[in-house]
Amino acid sequence: MKKSRFSEEQIIGVPKEADAGMKVADLCRKHGISDATFYNWRSRYGGMDISEARRLRQLEEENQRLKRLVEGRSWKKVSSPAQRREVVQQVIEQHDYSERRACALVGLNRRTFRRPVSPDADHEVRQRMRELAQDRPRFGSPRLHVLLRREGQVTSDLEDAE
After folding, report:
1. Which of 60, 68, 121, 125 has its CA 20 to 30 A from that of 41?
2. At what angle do helices 81-95 and 50-73 cross, to 10 degrees?
């Protein structure tokens, strides 16, 4: 994050001067800032004390640090719920965060985090299908299904209906 050339006291003091009755254009000229900067400061720091602004800055720095931690924790994109569960668990254990805060940080719904992982019933079938696809790369899924049915791994849809 870019370091500001203004201190927090100065940033908080500028909107207070405007509240005291000074014109915005004169105020911006006096401090050497643009109108847009003034309005950004007023929307962000308007009505704050210096201690509140420091606390806000500390929270923003902590948030950035945690985002870097989550991004740096995984070398690939964390996309599946199982991967997100692992990252949430690590954040809770290593940084002593609450479940709510860790889930919000990672972007995982708390119900998804709490839901027990269902057992994978078709693991053997999928594994065998991968092996067959590796041996016969030109076969599509319908032909692989026929091979699996011959091996007795799966049953036909017609046999299930009867």
Report:
1. 68
2. 130
Largest CA distance in the chain: 87
Q: List, for residues 59-101, the tens digit of each pLDDT value.
A: 888 888 888 777 665 445 677 888 889 989 998 998 889 999 9
Separation of CA 30 from chain center: 41
- Alpha-carbon torsion angle 133, 134, 135, 136, nearest 10: 40
- Beta-carbon contacts of 27 under 8 Å, excluding residues fewer than 6 positions away, are 14, 17, 18, 38
- Rounded to whole angstroms, the Cα distance separating 90 from 159 reads 47
| DSSP states along 31-85 | HT--HHHHHHHHHHHTT--HHHHHHHHHHHHHHHHHHHHHHHH-SS---SHHHHH
d(CA 68, CA 106): 11
Give dist(CA 114, CA 99) in Å, integer. 10
pTM exceeds cut of 0.70: no
3-state secondary structure of 100: helix
